[in-house]
Amino acid sequence: CIRLGDDSSLSRSGKVLEFADSVLVGWCIAGVILAMLSATVSTAFSHGLVVCFAALTLLVYWTIRVGLLRIKNYGAFLFMASICLSVSVVVLFNGPQISDFYSQIEYARDFLRGNPLAFHVPFFEDWPDLLGYTLVETLLLCICDKVMFIKLFEAACTSAIVVVAYSCMRLLSREPFARIASLCLVLFPMFNVINCTANNQILSALLALLSVRVYMSIRAGLSSNSVIFRLLTCGILLALARFVRPDAVLVLLALCISCVYSIVQRREPLRSSAAKAVMVGLCAMLVSYFILPVGINGLLLDAGIKSPNEGNAHVVINKLVIGTDPETDGGWSSTYG
To answer: Which tens digits make up the pLDDT trace of 20-45?
Structure first.
């Protein structure tokens, strides 16, 4: 991770880039709003709203730019702002669970009612990757048997994601950039609406992002044991994220490539203590990622619970294929299941 400079002042070119970045993010958010409105209102009206939104972004930019820098504990401010907004959205748009989201909660409740075979059903034969988060929902329902409680838990996880993302951005950029970008994430519509449905994306994303933040804390001058411990922690976090949602393997691959690149970039001899620490830590990360789920699965099998596996029985339902399908504009379609 490279710091681009101190936070005391910005050059004129830096201010221009910061301003352009904010406008670009504003237009991206406006595009999402346009896509959401296009199905319900006229095209002219929706385009007018986008223009008004872009103008508002330009008008309030400098106010935000100055005001955000005066907040001392910005991480706490982000968390409170995000959780207030997320909870408000969840309460206002508290729709019923449908499709597989509904099934997961009902199977969790069935298990809590004393049915030991609640998870041994065709649903989890077709979708074994959903069992991990269903077990998380089971634990949450043990505390409070309300779907709203699960949604509020996810709202808290969403707010934590914002804080961790801000922490990562502080290491990569200047403080004003990090603050404005993290605030844009708080205000991003889909980031808050996703909490209205109890799903396995949020907790998995939080765990994966935490692993990235731990990895970014590795810097020159750390002891070998510290480097190994932090990489081991990354593996554990990714293993837990994998239990919830299998796409954590993509983050694992990125961290492995980054470890190898860090050795090559610094031209460290393979026998040096720094290179050995990275290689041992990389092995520890891989071992923890693959071994920890095996232990969790063994405990679940001993308890009579079906072991969660990655993938699903419907090979045609592929995120990459659906995301690039021109017939659905990159969206999900019931045609594919």
So the answer is: 665 666 566 566 555 555 555 455 55
CA-nearest of 222, 219, 243, 225 to 293 is 243
Cα distances from 128 to residues 120, 133, 269, 303, in angstroms, run: 10, 10, 44, 17
pLDDT of residue 116: 76
Q: How far apart are CA 215 and CA 274, in angstroms?
A: 15
For 240, residues 6+ apart whose C-beta sits below 8 A from its C-beta are 207, 292
247 vs 201: CA distance, rounded Å? 10
Which amino acid type is present at position 15? Answer: K
Report which DSSP code applies to 7.
S
The model's pLDDT over 123-160, given as tens digits with 9 standing for 90+, comes to: 777 777 788 888 888 888 888 888 889 889 999 999 99
- Other CB atoms closer than 10 Å to residue 37's CB: what's the count? 16
In the DSSP assignment, the letter for residue 331 is: S
Which of 191, 193, 169, 187 has the alpha carbon at shortest distance from 57? 187
Cα separation, 235 vs 232, in Å, equals: 5
Residue 216 has pLDDT above 80, yes or no: yes
Is the pLDDT at 175 greater than 50? The verdict is yes
